[in-house]
Structure formats: C-alpha cells, structure tokens
Amino acid sequence: MMIKEKQILQLIKLAAHAPSGHNTQPWRFSYDEGSITMRPDFMRALQVVDADNHAMFISLGCALENLLIAARQYGLEATYEITSESADPNIKVALREADEVAKSDLFDFILKRQVCRSVYLSEQLERNTLSTLIQLENEPGVSVKYFTKRADIETMIPYIVEGSTAQMQNRNFTNELVSWMRFNQKDALRAGDGIWFSSMGFPNVPRWLGKLIMLQLVSAKSEAKRWEKTIKQSAGLVLFMVEKNDIVHWIRIGQSFQRFGLTAALLNVCHAHVNMPCEEEAIRQRMAYELGFGDMTPLLLIRFGYADTMPYSFRRNLNEVIHSV
Ligand SMILES: Cc1cc2nc3c(=O)[nH]c(=O)nc-3n(C[C@H](O)[C@H](O)[C@H](O)COP(=O)(O)O)c2cc1C
Question: Which positions ≥6 away from 153 have C-beta within 8 Å?
Fold first, then answer.
C-alpha cells in the first residue's frame, strides 16, 4: 500500500529534529512510496572532533529512533535494515500500514526535547524519575553506567577537565567549533544549523565579537573551572558504551541515547553532553581501563538534572536534507 507523500515528508521532518554533534544535521534522506532511506552526509563531517565519524552515525541513530517512533504514531509498521559494510552506508526504513501498532508516549517529546547547556539546580532527581531512566531498555551491544552519588559523580571530573583542556588547547578543535557557531539569531536562522549562542545561554552578538569571545576570552583554564562547577551541580551523569566500536553499534547507541533524551524530556529532566573524555582517544582508553569497563568503549557522557529549558536550536529546511539518489 502506498504511503502518502505528505506523511513521508512529515516523518523526515521529525527524524531531522534529532540531536547531532555541533548541530551539523549530517543526514540525507531519500524516499519512495513505501520506504525512507537515510545516509550520512560526509560533507558535514566534523574532521577534528569526530575523525572516525562515530558521532555522525550516533546522530543518524537518533534520527532513526525519531522516525520509528513517529511512524508508529501514524499507524505505520516500520522495519529497518542497516547497510554498513559498503562505500554507501545507509539505513533503509520500510513502512507499511498496519491495524495495530503500539504508539509511544515519547512521540509528543520529539519537538520538545533539547540539549540544555545551562547549569542545573544541585538537586537529586526524584527516586521514581531516576529509576524510570535507569530502567530504559538499550539496543543490543549498548550499555549504560549511571553516576548519581556525589563521590561517584566527582570521580569523573578529572577526566572531563583533562578532555576539555586538551580540546581547548587544540586550535583545530576551536576553529572547527567556531565554524559551527551561530552567534546571533539572524545567522542561526539563515543557516538552520550549528550551535546558536543563545542556546548556550549567551546573548546575540555580531559574528566578529562571538569569535573574539570564543577564541580569545574563553580559555582552557576558564573552561576547566566552569566544568568543575557544572558537573558538581548535576544530579547525575550517564555514560553510554558500546561492545563493538563500529557503525552498527554507533547507530544503536544513538537510538538508545535518543530514547533517554525523549524520556528525560517527558520527565522534565534536562540533559547535555560532556563528551570530551570520550572524544579524546587516549583519555577514553585510560578512563575505560581505570573505571573497569573491560572491552566496552564509552562514547557519550551525559549530565542531567533539573533546570529551565533554553532557547531551541534550529533545523534546515526539508528540501536541504532530501536528495534523490
Ligand atoms: C553524537 C552527539 C555528540 C554531541 N556532542 C556534544 C558535545 O560534545 N557538546 C555539546 O555541548 N553538545 C553536544 N551534542 C549536542 C548537540 O550540539 C545538539 O544536539 C545540537 O546542537 C542540536 O541541539 P538540540 O539537541 O537541542 O536540538 C552532541 C549531540 C550528539 C548527537
């Protein structure tokens, strides 16, 4: 049975509301009357912070999860196939109208979810809220570790500070970050991608001033201090890990992380990334060894807690993410 084009376009729009590293939105969609195919957009790769493209495929996994949740909402059964061992890696989602498809409470939070970069209230999560998050099911080969006791949270600070310092001292890293920063609403809206300064809690400024702030005033030392305070004010941290460091597992970790983000939004819990120790390979390996994670590779470190939401980031228009193959 043919699926209406309008519905397919709506599904793509909701998929593209997923989070992505630096809000690069590194995806390209194509479709026919019964399927949507998603491909990485290598033109949007982050060559410094994500040299192996793991964050790119995690972002695709987040978009896939949105798509699956949204399809069910529209009474469509969705099955997908990942092609990873090829020069053209892709995820093909086949859609079929079905009589009984279980809807998810998470659908309503696809547009409400955000990565909230403010400092959180130093308050523990309510017990039921925390256990709902901890009990979320993960995709095969993905596991999570929660840090919720003060002392446990603080064991992560040295790794975070070390990762942040390494990145802030790397000009290629800061230049790449700044190239994806949108320092005022006009630039953010025009681009439809990137990290809007306001979503980081800063006022709108001209691009030259934003660059000056990021490259001259923000230092490794000021960031280290900020991270220490920010982590201490979090209700907890959660580390997402994979048992195999490959494309399939990167997509799966993205799906698990997206369910976490949507569930957190449903529970009025904010979250944001503190990935630096996972992004710096030497630190990641040492952290995994010292904390006894065995062969698991930690790829996403997330802080969470209560806070007010921040201004939402933007997305590109549909015609920019849809390509005929
Ligand atoms: C794989 C991945 C890695 C990310 N890494 C970081 C990060 O290191 N620091 C950060 O502040 N945000 C990080 N983010 C969050 C994105 O910047 C955010 O999703 C994007 O700006 C869009 O904003 P939104 O999620 O609020 O819609 C990451 C997101 C993903 C999916």
Answer: 147, 231, 232, 234, 236, 237
Give tens-digit pLDDT for 183-197.
999 999 999 999 999
pLDDT at residue number 324: 78
Residue nearest to atom 7 of ligand 1 (CA): 273
Pocket mutation for ligand 1, best pick of 271, 275, 304, 315 (most atoms within 8 Å of C-beta): 275
For the CA of 200, the closest atom of ligand 1 is 11
CA of 154 to the centre of ligand 1 (A): 22
Distance 307 CA to ligand 1 centre (A): 17
Q: What is the mean pLDDT of the chain?
A: 96
Residue 1 reports pLDDT greater than 70: no
273 lines ligand 1 (CB under 6 A): yes
Tokens of 153: 């949270």
List CB contacts of 121: < 8 A, sequence separation 6 or more.
233, 305, 306, 307
Query: For the segment 106-132, what is each residue's pLDDT rounded down to a tens digit?
Result: 999 999 999 999 999 989 999 999 999
Q: Which CATH number fits domain 5-113+312-321: 3.40.190.80, 3.40.50.720, 3.40.109.10, 1.20.272.10?
A: 3.40.109.10
Q: What pTM does this model have?
A: 0.97
User: From residue 106, how far is each of 103, 111, 268 by CA, in Å?
Assistant: 9, 10, 13
Q: Is 275 in the pocket of ligand 1 (CB under 6 A)?
A: yes
**243 C-alpha vs ligand 1 centroid, how far in Å?**
22
CB of 114 closer than 6 angstroms to any ligand 1 atom: yes
The tens digit of pLDDT for each residue in 63-76 reads: 999 999 999 999 99
